[in-house]
Amino acid sequence: MENQNRQTDVINRSKQNTEAGKQELYMYSLRKMAEDNVEKNKSPLTQLQNLRSFFYTGGEIIRQHPTEQYALIAMDIAQFKAVNEFCGRDAGDALLAAIAGVFRKLDTERPLTISSHARADVFALLTTYQEEQELIDIVMQIKKVIDDFPIDCKVLPAFGIATSQGEPPAISYLKDCATMALNTIKGKFYASYAFFDEKMRRQQMLEKQIENNIVTALQNGQFALYIQPKVDMATGEIVGGEALVRWVDPEHGVISPGDFLPVLEKNGFVIDLDVYMWEQVFKMQSELLSQGRRPVPVSVNVSRVHAFDKSFCDTLCRLSQRYQVDPSYVPLELTESAFLWDEQGMYRQLEILQSRGFTASMDDFGTGYSTMNMLKNQSMDEVKVDQAFIRDLETNEKSRVVIRHTIRMLQELGTDIIVEGVETEEQKKFLLECGCKAAQGYLFYKPMPWQEFVSLL
Fold first, then answer.
1. pLDDT, tens digit (0-9, with 9 covering 90-100), for 238-293
2. Which residue ranges of the chain lie beneath pLDDT 50?
3. pLDDT at 130
4. pLDDT for position 334
5. What are the φ/ψ torsions at residue 254 (nearest 5 degrees)?
């Protein structure tokens, strides 16, 4: 019996060893295939790994040496396309090859270090370190090669640095963090590098939370319609309103538009949010009309992303027809940035909408470099003068001169005028003396839920 048991144990151990051997052979085969693939996935120009093989090789380094402290440096050159156009592609390629030479040298000189030529002018380096100054020295070493390179263009590299915090990091996460840090300084001549810090980490977590929750928030009606009234300063009568959005999250409370709108512009969800808010305004105006009440115009904001939205015009016209609301009751507010991405395309869409009864309002007038040119080239029904113009009216005579002549110019152009951010009686008095009657501001009303706005009417 004992002999049988011993024989059984031997057989079981033999099977286990065989299975372990098969597993080890399988893992070896996978690693070998991956390593062979790494060699095949090097950039022909720089002989550095592409991003996929960089992630694999870097991940293996971290897996095999989990107790080391790691950093990832991402590099990008501002407006590199312009370098190719002005200096020629050969010069641009020569610059990239010189940069790659520094990265290859770092690979050789530093232990547990791997570099990547991700695409075009984007490079990355994973390395171990003891002090942050080591990483700054690496950045300066690469930057010196770029600064000394003989080329007839100003080349502005930017470096983002992300460091591991405690546990072995995921290399793709370090790359995202380094890129986020890089983007805070890209194109700025006075800064060469930025470290990913706690403020960026919180912003990253907020952006991820917003991206994860946006669809549910739209489906569950968590975006609330608020309206800030527009008033006739001479009489105090409400002559219109501006639709604003507030995100009321059941867990985190009210989330500021300044936090979530930039994120939604990045991922394109701002189009869905805009359409949702437009529909709420059309629906509100329709309800007032069905009650026999005459609504005042309530303007809606149009994000710059709509410059590439082919259904932009059709969506607004469809909402007007569905709710039987005249387009004049829903003016469109556009900032200068809405025209910067595709100026001619946005002009064409705006002309179509105006021909169908919509009116256009230029928001934040005076804050952009080409505002005056837009006034000359595009027919705007209304101009909203930015609050920055009137903030120091009481103390700055130059501000009074500028606003006085701005109002006179807009009156001569036959454009309706409304001033934003009126907060004091002195500002109100001065604007009335200049012949401007319409205004928005805390002196009159703060943004309020649409139900309160309707009750005021």
1. 999 999 999 988 887 888 888 888 888 877 788 889 999 999 999 999 999 999 99
2. 10-11, 14-16, 20, 22-23, 26-30, 33-34
3. 93
4. 86
5. -80, 125
DSSP state letters, 248-300: EETTTEEEPHHHHHHHHHHHSHHHHHHHHHHHHHHHHHHHHHHTT--PPPEEE
Beta-bridge mates of residue 244? 226
437 phi and psi angles, rounded to 5 deg: -105, -40
Amino acid at 309: D
Residue pair 319/311 in contact (Cβ under 8 Å)? The answer is no
- Beta bridge mates, 74: 124, 160
User: Contact at 8 Å (CB) between 332 and 361?
Assistant: yes
d(CA 449, CA 218): 18
Q: Which amino acid is at 123?
A: F
pLDDT of 326-336, one tens digit each? 999 999 998 76
CA pair distance 77, 392, nearest whole angstrom? 40
Whether residue 185 contacts residue 219, with contact meaning beta carbons closer than 8 Å, is answered with no
φ, ψ (nearest 5 deg) of residue 418:
-140, 140
* Residue at token pair 């009159």: 444
The residue to which tokens 């994860």 are assigned? 212
CA atoms of 443 and 143, how far apart (whole Å): 53
pTM listed for this prediction: 0.67
Q: Are 319 and 283 in contact (CB under 8 A)?
A: no
Beta strands 332-334; 360-365: pairing state:
parallel
Beta strands 238-249 and 298-302, pairing class: parallel
